[in-house]
Amino acid sequence: MTKSQRTALAVLSAAMLMTILDGSIVTVAMPAIQQDLGFSPAGLSWTVNAYLIAFGGLLLLAGRLGDLIGRKTMFITGTVVFTAASVLAGVATTSAVLVGARFLQGIGSAIAASVVLGILVTIFTEPRQRATAIGVFSFTGAAGASIGQVLGGVLTDALNWHWIFLINVPIGALTVLVAVRALPADRGLGWSAGADVLGAGLVTAGLMLGIYTVVEVERYGWVSAHTLGLGALAAALLATFVLRQATAVNPLLPLRIFRSRTVSGANVVQMLTLAAMFAFQIIVALYLQKVLGYNALQTGLAMLPAAVAIGGVSLFASAALITRFGERAVLIAGLTLLLAGMSWLTRLPVDAGYVTDVLPVMVALSGGGLVLPALTALGMSGAEADDAGLASGLFNTTQQVGMAIGVAVLSTLAAARTETELVAGAAEAVALTSGYRLAFTVAAGMLGAALVLGATVLRKRPTPADAAVAQVVSPA
Description:
Layout: H1 3-24, H2 30-37, H3 41-44, H4 46-69, H5 71-90, H6 95-113, H7 116-123, H8 127-158, H9 163-166, H10 168-182, H11 197-215, H12 217-220, H13 225-247, H14 261-290, H15 296-316, H16 318-325, H17 327-345, H18 354-364, H19 368-381, H20 388-423, H21 428-456, H22 464-473
Keywords: Cell membrane, Membrane, Transmembrane, Transmembrane helix, Transport
Transmembrane segments: 39-62, 74-97, 103-124, 131-155, 161-183, 195-215, 221-243, 264-288, 300-322, 329-346, 358-380, 401-418, 438-458
Membrane topology: Multi-pass membrane protein
């Protein structure tokens, strides 16, 4: 790997770390933000969902714009927007301003992140180097969420919650300065190639309305006119988007991409996995603070073993294991570890001990360091060369949509169960724990479904070991 390649990889990884970290750094600071800005329990989730919805909803359009005007230009533009929005979030004094700033952060992240994988696979063309680069890149994504919780706890306790956003400013500025010189210049297809603005509007509106509907279930109920009506409208918008993609001259998401069983399967598995993993991180942080009485710093440190486990496996083991056994085998092993950890949480007691009840789950999360690099490799390798940018945008989209859906659904289920227990006369800690256990049970079901799909839908790709065996069996 040349010096220029290492520098470019560092820039891309730093941007991804900042993007993923910002989705999770807010989690341990949520109680402090709620108290300071007066968020309602349901409204508080929008400090996370506003970011994830904008991010997931705009990735496809941003990826297409990268094809038209150049990926380097999009990357730098997105990083500038994200950094400016971080300033606004850092100085927010009302809940409305903070949610708006988080939405703008999501827009900036979508613009930058939509082209990152496309740039990476262009820079690293040799298979072994690409596997190593993907391992490093996946490490920043996998560990970023856990690192965000540790850093969020440190900043919230040592300073205040405003600094969890302001810390992005120097990082973003440095990333832009280095990216200008380190990333290879590229020329886009030009505006004449066309961008499906209508399609982008349909999918963004559909996703935003769908997540909003789920978040508001706690207030209106699952079978209310509000929930059913808005849910039906969201489904209609997304169905219209699919129809638009089948008929548009320059579709935002050409449906041919789904002909690849590997691409389709990897994206569905990723959505289920990240829905479970990201919601887990938020709910565990709430459990540690609201039930066990941890402060923000203690919560961040309690989550540190997960960051170390995920980062170590992703950075030092995933590339070698994928090369030796193939992406599918590594994916299944990682999902098995995650499922074991999540299943352990379904029995979480009110008076849990950290070493006996929480730490084993943090260690089991090392499976994430296997799952995410394997899914990245599968999601990109299953696409034709001409669809690499499209596959990158789709992969990032399902990642963020999965995270948003996971937070909305599992947080809502936990809150509804807690309310039911409180009405029945249960103590607050008991009611909260019951709600969290339900969320972990559903998350375990998501991981179980991901494991089944990974084992049955994704095809096994030949590995060097397979080739050696074939040579021995049939030397001719």
